[in-house]
Amino acid sequence: MPYDNNNIFAKILEKSLFTEIIQENEFTIAFKDIAPQAPIHILIIPKGKYIKYDDFLDKASQKEVYSFFMLINQLVKDYNLEDSGYRLITNAGKNANQEVPHLHFHLLAGQNLGKM
Ligand code: AMP
Q1: Most buried of 3, 42, 82, 97, CB within 10 angstroms?
Q2: Model confidence at 1, in pLDDT bands (50, 70, 90)?
Q3: Residues taking part in catalysis
Q4: Is 1 inside a domain boundary?
């Protein structure tokens, strides 16, 4: 399946759709989920055009992959989540009901999140 250039996160990246970026590095951005499922609900996405996790790991450079996960780690520190805890989720493809076909991780925190 080819990357869909019209997906909503592509529009955020090309700045035709505004969102407040809360953390950024060379290859990655993070912003708040529009429909938060927890007090802290942040989406982390690569700037490159990757559909989902396996696509990203198959095609991205080591620098892009490293930057992506380090930005998540930075958010964990910025929000002081090391002790209280957090949940990281990525939905990939049909059976996971991935809505937006641009790789994103959800960072959820700020209360007890219950069981998966
Ligand atoms: P997923 O089901 O894993 O693909 O999650 C897609 C997420 O994107 C959902 O949690 C939506 O609430 C979120 N979302 C959709 N549009 C926007 C937007 N414009 N800004 C921020 N989050 C969005």
Answers
A1: 42
A2: confident
A3: 104
A4: no
